[in-house]
Specification:
The protein is an alpha/beta fold. It has 13 helices and 16 strands. It has two domains: 165 residues, Aspartate Aminotransferase, domain 1 (Alpha-Beta Complex); 223 residues, Aspartate Aminotransferase, domain 2 (3-Layer(aba) Sandwich). The longest helix is centred in the C-terminal third of the chain and has 28 residues.
C-alpha cells in the first residue's frame, strides 16, 4: 500500500536529518564516539548549575505533583499551574494584559509551529498559502513543517560586509511585500544559525506586512528573551493581534522534556488548543509543573541571566578568538556578526569552496559540522546570492572548549587542502 501525498512528503528524510543519521552511524562504531569532534550538535551545553537546578525542581515536583500530573489526563491548553505562571510573568514583565485564553502549552515549540503551519498554510479556496520565511537562512527544522510539497519558501537576504571579517544579513522588505501567497510568516529571533536578532524597526515592518496581508507572524524565541537569553535580543517580544510568540525550555536546559508555549490572540490560540487536543491531547504534565515552579520562583530567570547568558557569551568570544588565530589569513572567510548564541555561522567567499565538500573532507578528520545549504529554502541559487548558500557552514558552541579548539584547527587544515586541490 502506497503512502498518501502528505505521507510521502512527511516520510522523506531531510538533508540535515540524513547528516544526523550519518553522525549516529559513524560514532556508534567501537570506541568511535570518543574519537569524533561533533561541532554540528544542536543540543544545549551541559552546564552543571543548570542541570542541578532542573534536577532539584524535578525532584520537588515528583514528590508533590506526581499523582495529579502523571496519573491523570489534563487540559489541552496546558497545566493550570504553568498557564497561570506564564500569564502572571508576561503581564508583569511586559505589561501585556493577557489571560489564559492567550496561552497554549505544547510538546515543544517546533510542534507548536507545526500546528500553526497546519492551521494557516496549505491549499485554500483562494489558492495555496505558504509558510514564508521573511529572511533565509533560518532554522532548518522549519522546512519539515508543511504536509504538502512546495509549502514553504523564503526571501533571500541582502548581504552586508563589514570592514573586518564580519558580515550580516539584512531583510529585503521590498521583496517580502510583493508576496501574495503568504499564509503565515515564521522566523527565529535570535536566529538559528546566525544569532541575528531583529530590531524594533524591523519588527514593526514585519508586523505591518502581517496586518496588510491579515496573516499571523510567528516569532520563535528559542534562543532569546526572556529566557534562555543564549543570544542578545535587540528588542523585547511584542504583543499584537497578528503576532504569535513561541517560547521553549529546550535551550534553557530541558530539551528532552519537550515543553514549549505560545502566546497570541485568543482566536488563533484557541484554534491551536483544539488542534493539540485532536492530535496529542496535551503536553507532558509533570514537566509542565516543573516549569511552573521554575517560573514562579524566579529560578528560570536567574539561570538565564546569571548562568546561561554569560556561559554562551564567553564561549562565543573564545570561538571568535580561535577562528581569528587559526583560520588562514590569506583566505576570505567571514563570520556573521552576533552577540552570543549557540552557533558560529561562517562564509568562505571563494569559488572553490563547497559546504558539502567541506563536510566530507572533515569526516576524514573525524569532525562534524553542518553544511549551510540546509538552512536555505530551495532554490539555493538566486541572482543576488549566487552560490552563497553553498559557501556557508555552521559550527556549534555547545561542545567543550577543547573540542571547539581542536575542531577549528582541523577546519583550517581542511580549508587549505580544499584550496590546494582546486
Amino acid at each position: 500500500m502506497g503512502l498518501s501525498l502528505s505521507g510521502t512528503k512527511m516520510a522523506k528524510v531531510s538533508g540535515l536529518r540524513s547528516i544526523m543519521e550519518d553522525i549516529a552511524t559513524t560514532t556508534s562504531d567501537t570506541g568511535g564516539a570518543s574519537g569524533w569532534l561533533n561541532l554540528s550538535i544542536g543540543n544545549p551545553a551541559l552546564i552543571s548549575e543548570v542541570q542541578a537546578t532542573w534536577q532539584q525542581l524535578t525532584a520537588e515536583s515528583l514528590a508533590e505533583d506526581f499523582t495529579t500530573a502523571s496519573c491523570l489526563y489534563g487540559p489541552s491548553r496546558g497545566a493550570p499551574a504553568l498557564v497561570d505562571a506564564i500569564v502572571a510573568d508576561f503581564n508583569a514583565r511586559y505589561g501585556w494584559g493577557i489571560t489564559a485564553e492567550n496561552v497554549v502549552v505544547g510538546p515543544g515549540s517546533q510542534m507548536l509551529c507545526f500546528i500553526a503551519a497546519a492551521l494557516f498554510t496549505g491549499p485554500a479556496t483562494d489558492g495555496t498559502q505558504q509558510i514564508v520565511l521573511p529572511m533565509t537562512p533560518d532554522y532548518t527544522g522549519y522546512q519539515g513543517l508543511c504536509m504538502h510539497s512546495g509549502g514553504i519558501s523564503g526571501v533571500p537576504p541582502k548581504i552586508e560586509q563589514g570592514e573586518d571579517r564580519s558580515f550580516r544579513y539584512a531583510f529585503d522588505f521590498d521583496a517580502l511585500q510583493q508576496r501574495n501567497d503568504i499564509g503565515m510568516m515564521l522566523l527565529s529571533s535570535p536566529s538559528n544559525p546566525t544569532g541575528r536578532s531583529i530590531d524594533s524597526a524591523e519588527l514593526d515592518r514585519l508586523i505591518g506586512v502581517a496586518r496588510r496581508r491579515d496573516v499571523p507572524l510567528i516569532i520563535d524565541h528559542a534562543y532569546g528573551a526572556p529566557f534562555p537569553q543564549i543570544a542578545a535580543t535587540a528588542t523585547a517580544p511584542a504583543w499584537d493581534e497578528h503576532v504569535i510568540n513561541c517560547f521553549t525550555l529546550s535551550k534553557a536546559g530541558l530539551p528532552g522534556e519537550r515543553i514549549g508555549f505560545a502566546i497570541g490572540p485568543a482566536h488563533h490560540i484557541n484554534a491551536m488548543v483544539s488542534f493539540l487536543a485532536n492530535s496529542a491531547l496535551h503536553a507532558p504534565q509533570l514537566a509542565q509543573n516543573v516549569a511552573a515552579r521554575a517560573l514562579t520562583t524566579g529560578r528560570l530567570q536567574d539561570m538565564a541571566t546569571e548562568v546561561i547568558s554569560p556561559f554562551y557569551r564567553d564561549r562565543r568570544q573564545t570561538a571568535e578568538k580561535l577562528l581569528t588565530e587559526l583560520l588562514p589569513d590569506d583566505m576570505d572567510w567571514r563570520l556573521h556578526s552576533s552577540e552570543g548564541g549557540m552557533f558560529c555561522w561562517l562564509w568562505i567567499n571563494h569559488a572553490w569552496f563547497d559546504d558539502m565538500a567541506l563536510y566530507r573532507q572533515l569526516k576524514t578528520k573525524r569532525v562534524f559540522i553542518v553544511p549551510g545549504r540546509h538552512f536555505f529554502v530551495d532554490p539555493l541559487y538566486t541572482a543576488r546570492l549566487a552560490n552563497h548558500g553553498k559557501q556557508c557552514f555552521r559550527i556549534s558552541l555547545s561542545a567543550d572548549e577543547s573540542v571547539i579548539g581542536e575542531g577549528i584547527v582541523r577546519i583550517a587544515e581542511a580549508l587549505r587542502e580544499m584550496r590546494s586541490a582546486s
